[in-house]
Amino acid sequence: MTISDSGLPTLDAVADNSPQVTNEPPKQPNVHEQRWQSYLRDCSELINMVDPLEVAGRIVKVTGLVMVATGIKMPIGGACFIPLQDGGRVEAEVVGFDGENLLLMPQTALEGVTPGAKVFSMEIAETVPKPQIGRPPRRRAQDRARHFPVGDGLLGRVVDAAGNPLDGLGPIPGDVTAPLNGRVINPLQRAPIEDTLDVGVRAINAMLTVGRGQRMGLFAGSGVGKSVLLGMMARYTTADVIVVGLIGERGREVQEFIEQILGPEGLARSVVVAAPADVSALMRLQGASYATAIAERFRQQGKNVLLIMDSLTRYAMAQREIALAIGEPPATKGYPPSVFAKLPALVERTGNGARGEGSITAFYTVLTEGDDQQDPIADSARAILDGHIVLNRSLAESGHYPAIDIEQSISRAMHNITSKEHQQAARMLKQWYSRYLRNQDLIAVGAYQPGSDPMLDIAIRKRDDINAFLQQDIDECADMQHSLQQLANTLTL
């Protein structure tokens, strides 16, 4: 600032402090922009007031267990629901189609469904993939189907075929879900069966050695100790996780298996999926697939899983019920062809995973009607499994438990996972046992003369020792080392 001699500011200082004068006109509001913004706000409010578009079909026919729906397009295996007038709903699955009509199989009872009732598709919410998991995109139709809870939150819990808890302990923790049908493993990428599995049952460990990742069938009629033997293996088997699928059995057996056979210690490392006989055929079918999906999830985590499914026959019967209801013709003793296609598809999901993953050792019970080993389901299961354990009714009636018939039973992986000495010892005991049974009537009536058959003479002397070796109490655990030692002691002359 410049100051004159009189102390007043000069003109240049006054010019510096004066406001700058510009030639730009003041900015006017854009009327067109304001009108468009107001119009868009009105449109947004109108959109929020409009009800969403509903795509629905309607029920035009109900015959037995099959509902016919029209006006909606869904793929095979798609899930839908029918709202009821009382506020409930019936969930169903698409099991076939006839022209433009869909064939639906309900998961629950059909009470409350009216003619013309609406049918809505159950949309699957896409979950956000987590970077650390690296979940692949859902390209398959199975991946876009319904997902069910799997993972560590199921340990110690009892759920139904839809993943709903049955034990009254609240909802299932965790957000890990998976579809019912997992991805097929390349057979060349599967790890071979190399390690033995200790099941805690002396007759199985020594005579029918099971490998880790093997699929075994337990063939038995009704009332021969099948459930008790399963419970012994569930409690004594050296596995990280146990998955039990009770499919189509009596509802009373579910609680008995959990409380009396499995016990608190066994339940703590187990997951029980219960689909008893009073639920629909679709839920029984879904229960077996769900139990297998849970086991597959634990196998991906590198754990060794024991899968017990009781029973494979009820699974086949559920598929037969569905197939006959939608019009598939029967082929073998009332079983449609789709039954024999479903069995290997379910069984092949178990076993060893790829190298670096865990394993699923599976025991499937197969009910033999009238103790007929040539039943079509038993014959088909025997062909697709890695071995079978046959329970004999005559042994059970004589008080011989577990009633394992070592003559008719076999483990197809035993020769790869046991030593030559073990195989020779098991073969020798089996020969003695078989030789005695074939001449039992002659021995009973006194028609056999000692010295006629040296092997039979040994079998007669060792009969009590062999029976004691093959029998075992439910509370007795016989590990692999103890079983082999008892086998050697039994063979000692």
Count the DSSP helices: 16
Task: Identify low-pLDDT runs.
Answer: 125-134
Classify the helix fraction into a percent range. 25-40%
Structural class: alpha/beta
Tell me, briefly, the overall form: elongated
Q: What would you say this structure looks like, in words?
A:
The chain is α/β, with parallel strands linked by helices and 493 residues long. It is built from 16 helices and 19 strands. The protein has helices spanning 11-17, 31-49, 202-207, 226-236, 251-268, 281-300, 312-325, 337-347, 376-384, 393-397, 414-417, 420-438, 440-445, 454-461, 463-470, 480-491; strands spanning 56-63, 66-70, 79-83, 89-98, 101-106, 118-121, 147-149, 157-159, 177-179, 196-197, 210-211, 215-220, 241-247, 270-275, 304-310, 351-352, 359-367, 387-390, 410-411. Strands 8, 12, 13, 14, 15, 16, 17, 18 and 19 form a 9-stranded mixed sheet that branches. Helix 7 (312-325) crosses helix 8. It is elongated. It is found in: Cytoplasm.
